[in-house]
Specification:
- InterPro entries: Phylloplanin-like.
- Keywords: Signal.
- The chain is mostly beta strands.
- The chain contains 2 helices and 9 strands, in the order αββββββαβββ.
- It starts with a helix and ends with a strand.
Length: 150
Amino acid sequence: MRTSHTALLISILLLASFSSLTHGLILNGLPIGALKVNGLLFCSPNGNLIGNSPPLSGAIVQLSCAGSQTNLGQALTNPAGAFTVSVKILDTLLFDPATCFIRVNLPIATCSVFPPDGALTASLNLVNIVQTAILNIATFTTGPFVSSIF
């Protein structure tokens, strides 16, 4: 008897994991199950590549959305200044490409040319949507960073 209840519960959970969310993120007519945001950060007055600006390693970048105090994800820049913020299926419900952005809080100790306070923010641009057997993954890249006071 216990085995049949366990098997039923496992079956229900398995079916639920394959069903699409009715109110989830939809891009280009496709339900999105995960998303990634890629970008580069440099040690320059605005965080963008200017001349031979060195890459900024070890900075925390956050994916935030206007009107929400919740960060949907964060990442650390690698030695080349690159980062990828990954967002799982439940957090895609809170994601809106029109209001979400990448944020870097200032100051950052390893870059002395940044302003002493505020943040750097960058908009998001859809690059592609990869369809897999299990879910669709949307990949975004950042636009240019700008200085912001929050």
